Amino acid sequence: MSVAFRRESDDEHLEPRFELPIPPGPNRVTPRGLALIEGKIAALEAAVSAGGSEEELKALRRDLRYWRTRGATAELMPPFAGEEADFGARVRYRDGRKENAVTIVGHDEAEPAAGRIAFTAPLARALTGVAEGDLVPFAGRTLEILAVERGDVE
User: Where is the composition biased (Basic and acidic residues) (predicted)?
Assistant: First the structure.
């Protein structure tokens, strides 16, 4: 039967709404990442309490389940302190003539445009364990590590 002949109230033709996928592996977070998760949970709980249409509430509850799960599984990592890049480190590197910097963080606070990448990202994996002065092969190029310092994760 064509969709044109269905009533709008028929739920059978609606696409199923699946749960939001949880990234595999540990849920490592920085203090900033934990605060972001707690903020999301509080905002979603307030939105659910405020009410809305059945569809809106379904979507809010779905998002709330995701963020509650992320909050319950969060592993707060100690602040970065060392010479070799690891979780929470800010790594400045030169890629050819261009200088870049990234901070290695958890999945939920990753924002590549702001220089925060998830610890499971290919670049983060390539940078983990490097120190100032190292040369690192990555994606057919060589990255020169300029500095490894504590990231902006508070």
Answer: 1-18
Q: Domain for residue 35, yes or no?
A: no
Q: What is the pTM of this model?
A: 0.80
Does a structural domain hold residue 109?
yes
CA atoms 71, 74, 80, 85: torsion sign? negative
In sequence order, what are the residues at sequence separation of 6 or more whose Cβ sits closer than 8 angstroms to the Cβ of residue 86?
80, 104, 128, 129
Whether 102 is covered by a domain: the verdict is yes
**Do the domain assignments include residue 123?**
yes
pLDDT tens figures, 96-121: 889 999 999 999 999 999 999 999 99
Contact in structure between 67 and 41 (CB atoms under 8 Å): yes
Question: Domain of 114: which CATH number?
Answer: 3.10.50.30
119: nearest Cα among 143, 140, 103, 138: 103
